[in-house]
Amino acid sequence: MKRPDFFIVGAPKCGTTFLYSHLKNHPEIFMPERKELHYFGTDLYHPDFVRDTTTYLSFFQKAENERRIGEASVWYLYSKRAACEIKAFSPSAQIIIMLRNPVDMIYSLHSQYLYNGCEDIVDFEDALGKEDLRKKGLFLPKNAYPVEGLFYRETAKYTQQIKRYFEIFDRKAIHFIIFDDIRNNPQASLRDTFRFLGVNEDIRNDAKLVNPNKRAKSVFLRNLLQNPPPFLLNMSRRLIPHAIRSRMRKGMWDFNIRYESRIPMRPELRKRLQDEFKPEIKQLSDMLGRDLNYWCSHSSFAN
């Protein structure tokens, strides 16, 4: 059966949707229609994660003569098991890791979670203050995806996550992309990635970032789509074919999107988080052989 041989493993809110979209459009690369399958990383759980092997492999059976087959699931980097599980599944797999200033990443993740109903603490600083209690099972929203994503600081501890991949994969099999490089020169970032994957580099298309900040126009409609009343769900299943029902649900989700820039983080909070992440960023710079310490002093906010 056809199976993936490279994996975009995260981190979340670091440009993975941008990369997935452009790899999917490359004529020599097959990417499944669905992003975020999360077959690996069995230490994390959400009902939407695909854990059945036959179902997982079915997403790749439409591949034809493409040179490479890949998938993208952003919690593979955070997971303590995913690296080992990917290696056992595909010993020669190549890994793509995407990173972003941790302060911007966790702020963006909080905003994304507010949009899709995975977070119910609107104030970012308040959500950060609840992390320890959430690790004890308190103040958890119903739809967390996965619940570990609400431990915002933990999601941004890149060095310990990268070490797990360095311990298992040859470093030449791992390609790093920094979010800033995508913003500054997306075509160059894409060419570097195509070169890493061994496919034609001379593919040019619209290389804009494709996952802008979103808000739900109606929280009521969003919650209804996520958790429909049982009687409504059962009735729609009886009366409406699955394909039509899926299109209707997607249409309502799309209708409920409002695109808007995030409110900039309070400078005092940004400075405090920059100071907190400074040792992590120093260690990451040494690990990657690239100076990222400007993340600790850069004052502008990246959406």
N- and C-termini, Cα separation? 40 Å
- What structural class do you assign from the helix and strand content? alpha/beta
Rg over CA atoms: 20 Å
Mean pLDDT, nearest integer?
88
Per DSSP, the total helix count is 14
The strands making up the biggest β-sheet line up spatially as 2-3-1-4-5
Shape: globular
> What is the helix content?
40-55%
Largest sheet, strands/sense/barrel: 5 strands, parallel
Count every beta strand, where a strand is a DSSP E run of 2 or more residues: 7
Low-pLDDT residue intervals, each spanning 5 or more residues: none
Portion in beta strands: 5-15%
Strand-and-helix sequence, N→C?
EHEHEHEHHHHHEHHEHHHEH
Structural features, described:
This protein is of the alpha/beta class and 303 residues long. The chain is 45% helix and 9% strand. A 5-stranded parallel β-sheet has the order 2-3-1-4-5, sandwiched between helices. The mean pLDDT is 88.
